Automatic annotation (TrEMBL):
Pfam families: HD_3. Homodimer. Catalyzes the dephosphorylation of the nucleoside 5'-monophosphates deoxyadenosine monophosphate (dAMP), deoxycytidine monophosphate (dCMP), deoxyguanosine monophosphate (dGMP) and deoxythymidine monophosphate (dTMP). It catalyses: a 2'-deoxyribonucleoside 5'-phosphate + H2O = a 2'-deoxyribonucleoside + phosphate. Residues 63-183 form the HD/PDEase domain. Its EC number is 3.1.3.89. This is 5'-deoxynucleotidase. Belongs to the HDDC2 family. GO terms for molecular function: 5'-deoxynucleotidase activity; metal ion binding.
């Protein structure tokens, strides 16, 4: 398995001093000679399986979900979109799968890292351009363009599909927050993550969130400990 600097104890230092070249030097090069083999691409995105979501680690959850864990459940949630909500579900699934792909190289940058939004976007764009231009275009230019279009669509957030998947991103985080609070039996109060609900646009996703927060409220009440939703 390739060494992933984002899972080390020096992950924050690595984020602060990030460069694409440094990340690529830490990854063993593929020995496959065929230019149209997908192996180099697959080896890179394997890192999504081994890079933990940084926010949980900051709360002492050291065996937390990976980036790909988060993306997988997002993909499933998009399939639950009510049929009366007219979006292209297949495209939503693709958006969920691709939206955090750049983090395989850029890492999971969170607000406490104090990385400016523009710099975060620059790193992720540079990473995605490497994935697309260096790894995917030799396989197929059509496939490469499709990946880049999906990533850009999510980033700009202007289509109904992108808006919905951004809602799903927030809803999935809320679900995971509640699940970790239950897992740690109210020893961890993770309410700081619940602010993401404020950005949700679709009414039916807001209802999903309301159900989740009601469940959370009951959990904390039964635990005999007060946790106020911010």
């Amino acid at each position: 398995m390739s060494r992933n600097p984002f899972v080390s104890s020096n992950a924050n230092t690595f984020i602060q001093n990030w460069s694409l070249d440094a990340v690529l030097k830490s990854i063993p090069a593929t020995t496959v000679a065929s230019p149209n083999s997908p192996l180099a691409f697959l080896h890179i995105i394997e890192r999504l399986k081994t890079t933990p979501r940084e926010g949980w680690r900051r709360h002492g959850i050291l065996q937390g979900e990976s980036i790909s864990d988060h993306m997988y459940r997002m993909s499933v949630i998009t399939m639950l979109c009510p049929p009366e909500h007219k979006v292209d579900k297949d495209r939503c699934i693709k958006l969920a799968i691709v939206h955090d792909m750049a983090e395989a190289l850029a890492g999971d940058i969170t607000p406490p890292d104090n990385i400016e939004k523009a710099e975060k976007h620059r790193r992720e764009l540079e990473s995605m351009q490497y994935i697309v231009n260096t790894l995917l275009k030799p396989i197929s230019e059509v496939i490469a363009n499709d990946f880049m279009d999906l990533w850009t669509e999510y980033e700009t957030g202007k289509t109904p599909e992108a808006v919905f998947v951004k809602d799903v991103d927030r809803f999935e985080l809320i679900c995971q927050t509640i699940e970790y609070e239950k897992k740690y039996e109210a020893q961890k109060d993770l309410k700081e993550f619940l602010h993401v609900r404020e950005g949700i646009k679709n009414d039916f996703v807001k209802r999903w969130v309301a159900d989740a927060l009601s469940e959370r409220e009951a959990f904390w009440r039964n635990a005999g400990i007060e946790s106020i939703v911010p």
